[in-house]
Amino acid sequence: MESIKRLKSQIAPILFSVAAVNWMVISLTGSFQIVIPILTIIISCIMFVCYNYIQQQKKMKFLLFVAFSVLYFILSQVASINEREILPLFLIPVYGFTSVIYYFTVIRYRIGVVFLTGLIPFLIYSSKSEKNLTLTFAIFVILFFVLYYERERKKSNFASEGGFYKNKWYYLSMFFCVCVVFISAMIIPKPDVIPKIIYLNTVLSDEIDTLGNSEQDYLPNVSRNIFNPVNAKTQSRIDSLSAPLSDRVLLVVEADEALYLKVRAWDKYENNSWKSGNRELIEYQPIEDIYRYQVKYDTLVSLLKRAKEEGEIPPLLSEHNELWDFDSDKRVKKTAVLTNTSQVFVSSLPVPVGILDADCKNRNEYINRYGMCAVRTFPLTYPWDFYRIEYISSKLALNSQEYRLMRILNKTIAEEILNPASYRTDKVNGTGFTLGYDEINVLGVAAAELSHVYENYMQLPQNISQRIYELAESITEGKQSDYDKAKAIEQYFHTSDFVYDLNPPRIPDGTEANDYFLFESGSGFCIHYASAMVVLARACGLPARYAEGYVADEIEYETGRYIVREKDAHAYPEVYIAGYGWMVFEPTVSNMAKSKWDLIIDRIRVTVEFLETSISKVINITPVWVRVLIIPFVIFTILFFIWVLRRLYIQAWIGKNLIMESDKAVYRIFGRIIKLLGVANLEMIKGETASQYERRICNKTGLDLSDFIQIFNKSKYAGIKPSINDVRVGILAYKDVVVFVKGRMGRFNFLKYFWLV
């Protein structure tokens, strides 16, 4: 029973260990479940009771502790038979935190060790890139301050004298300190940086993927909280909680323009994840085979130009005579050199859309139908240092035939201009329009690609809501070309109320992620925008795919190279423009979401600015002589207001003492007297009794506190309960001390202390 009774004085350590465990579990799983803190409290209390019992034993403490630990892990293993994730994510942290906190708060009070123990959930929390001030974090900080102040209170003079005085102001100072830290942490802007511990998360994620056959949802409730295109994953969940924000440099790119560098892509969407639906799309082939697919559009434009000159333009293009008012300006072939500065890329080569060739130390480079490039085919790996690529730039001159044709293309027009029959005419006397071998070959390649794309990149699951289809239709209403439809969807995000948020609201269980993002939260980062645009594009009949990689847009002006950092990880949609090819779009918005505290601060700032402007206007229209008279009036008003508040405060304090238990009131008054005399450097000496202290004060200052000290001694040592008149005697003694201290310190300095009444 004694072990259980001791729990009353161990509430703070128990709650601290519970907060640490709960914080860590939330950081790992990304979700809060009420059963976790409840079970943690129960198990922690049981462990504290057991440890209290072990601590009371004079012998065999160590053996009892070992026996308890062995029994705990046996029971944990039994409980984990049906739920594999319970053991590593819950039971072990409960045991570890509870044991450490008990030892360093009950047996050996070491607040520094408690703080270092608290760093464990903090590092896990940081590695998940959570930067908002969560309630879990706030509770953890508050409980740590409670333990800290409890330690300081136990070390105080009052505690060493047997606790004859209950310092209530200790609780006020603790509350004030916690509030200052708590509010400051919420108001002060926090930088978008995270500790280096984030890289540990990448390693752990890779290991878990390997153990789970690379299935990203191996642990059902453990989301991969760091968006990382480099991970060897077979799917990408879009309910991740946050993005990497590290400044670590991954790549250095020598290029003439900013690039989207693709690492991975997927075609099938289901269960809030992007994955490979057609395994043939993953199969790699030599990169040389991609050339004819990338140059087909330029060949097609040349063919149409020649057909126009010979009067054999396909019928659907005859309605667009404005095409021929512009000159042809073929897309530019460019080169880029990428250097792997961090050695995190293995086999996969980040490449842009339009890749033609890659050269990596004379190795064989491969590419698949997703546009993913590798040094070797899986599962073999080959770490590379640098490589050179050739690609066709996605930039089109706005006054070119290439751009104007792309703006009108859709599936119907593409099927016609890719059909060789659209160009055939009867020859008379050896004249007429004929197709060359290369042109026939390009038309065949482009037509096959068009059919292949529509077969593989139009799928949507049945749980996509009808309102997504309706939204896609309303956004693209009146648009005829594929480009105009895709551009309208892209601009929809930028012109609506969507915000960029690295820590978006958690998607409720069983909710379709894109529907929740589009109609409920409206906040997220690149993965949410990219996925939503792909879904909307498919909903309105456009083939699209979800891609992940990096954006190389930070230029190093000294060298002219682009720097790619870990925080440049990006997800983006690729939409297929029929007859043209794949094109990157950017739906991710740049305007950041504002928290509730930001909105409150904005309102306060606006109010202050309004008052400042109003006062300034009044001052400007007020004559100088009136301003001179106002200054002393304002000073007098402020001082009078302070004096009134002080009087009200003192009266409230006196009234509270008169209505509370008389013995407690006497203790409070005695404590305040000691506090005020301490301001005048007349502190109570350690080991000094109340009577000795009173005689020393009387000899030094002439203050006669003997009547009140006699009342105090009778109450504390004789158990005689003071009367209400005795309390009034104490209040009079306190007022005498106030007068003395004010005279000793001067009124100006005393203003710092009178609020401690």
Please explain how this structure is put together.
It is a single chain. With 757 residues, the protein is an alpha+beta fold. Among the domains are: 175 residues, no CATH class; 27 residues; 97 residues, no CATH class. It is built from 26 helices and 19 strands. About 7% of the residues have low confidence.
Describe, in short, the structure shown.
52% of the residues lie in helices and 11% in strands.
How many individual helices?
26
Spatial gap, N to C terminus: 41 Å
Largest sheet: 6 strands, antiparallel
- What is the helical fraction, as a range of percent? 40-55%
According to DSSP, the number of beta strands is 19
Categorize the overall geometry.
elongated
* Percentage of β-strand residues: 5-15%
Key words describing this protein structure:
757 residues; alpha+beta; four-stranded antiparallel beta sheet; 19 strands; 11% strand
